[in-house]
Amino acid sequence: MAQRVAVVGTGKIGEALLSGMIRAGKSPDDLLVTTRRAERAEDLRRGYGVEAVSNAEAAKAADILILTVKPQDMGALMDELAPHVPADRLVVSGAAGITTKFLEARLAAGTPVVRVMSNTPVLVDEGMSAISGGAHATEAHLERVEEIFGSVGKTIRVPEKQQDAVTALSGSGPAYFYFLVEAMTDAGILLGLPRAAAHDLIVQAAIGASVMLRDSGEHPTLLREAVTSPAGTTIAAIRELENHGVRAALLAALEAASNRSQEIAEGLS
Ligand SMILES: NC(=O)C1=CN([C@@H]2O[C@H](COP(=O)(O)OP(=O)(O)OC[C@H]3O[C@@H](n4cnc5c(N)ncnc54)[C@H](O)[C@@H]3O)[C@@H](O)[C@H]2O)C=CC1
Ligand SMILES: O=C(O)[C@@H]1CCC=N1
After folding, report:
1. Is the CB–ligand 1 distance for residue 127 below 6 Å?
2. ipTM of this complex > 0.95?
3. The whole model's pTM is what?
4. Residue 215 belongs to a domain with what CATH number?
């Protein structure tokens, strides 16, 4: 029999995951959602044909609970949810900074917990989800989680101590690329291009570069060198990027994101 999956706290990531599971062929009858607001529940019911239930009902009815609330809401959610979760349920957390220990401490002894850091490209089946098992998660549990998140992109298993770094790289990663696109589109405006043209030019350059990174098997340095002609335009730009410390800024930025993920965990434990 198909396993019933509940998405608990269905916001942006929860909905992306829900839509991905349906695109991958999971029947809406095997999916449940929980929300804080009734209108949100109604939208999800109408949009996806899934049943919206209370957190307590989800805990009883679903085999797998995927928790996609903000880290700051996880304590309150667990107070409400945990008393209703039988120890044979698989509990999956998608929240930044929430450790498997945090959840295990609030659930019945022996409950399997898996921590996942995903990202918003799950909306277009190009997500990256890093998976770590808690103390009671078996190989079968990890495989089940890989199957769910594999339906909306790639998955990787990582030791849980690497999850803060993963959050900094792939969890927050799409935001850095959007930020670069915003900035480069403004550069196009500075150079006299219409905004729409600047946007299309830079987005297609990003897509082309991404596909080459993924499919060519070449190191990024070689791909960049292939664009960089002697005494040409690209090296003039690269010199400015180096002069402005962009490489150092990225090292510092991702370190800050990882530190913040750790702080969230410490603030909540
Ligand atoms: N947005 C992103 O790019 C990523 C987010 N994450 C993680 O995913 C989680 C969700 O993030 P978003 O989807 O961006 O947030 P969101 O705010 O869009 O979604 C969270 C949802 O949970 C609901 N909620 C909160 N407490 C609840 C409760 N007790 N019962 C039922 N529903 C409840 C809220 O009403 C909201 O709709 C966070 O923990 C975040 O760290 C992970 C990777 C990427
Ligand atoms: O900004 C955040 O905290 C979440 C976690 C990873 C991406 N967004």
Report:
1. no
2. yes
3. 0.94
4. 1.10.3730.10
